[in-house]
Amino acid sequence: MDAEELKRRYTAGERDFSGANLSKANLVGANLVGVNLLAADLTGANLAKAKLWGANLSGANLARANLTRANLSGVNLNQGNLRGAKLNNTKLYGADLSGACYDESTRFSRGFDPISRNMQKF
Question: How many domains does the chain have?
Answer without folding.
Answer: 1
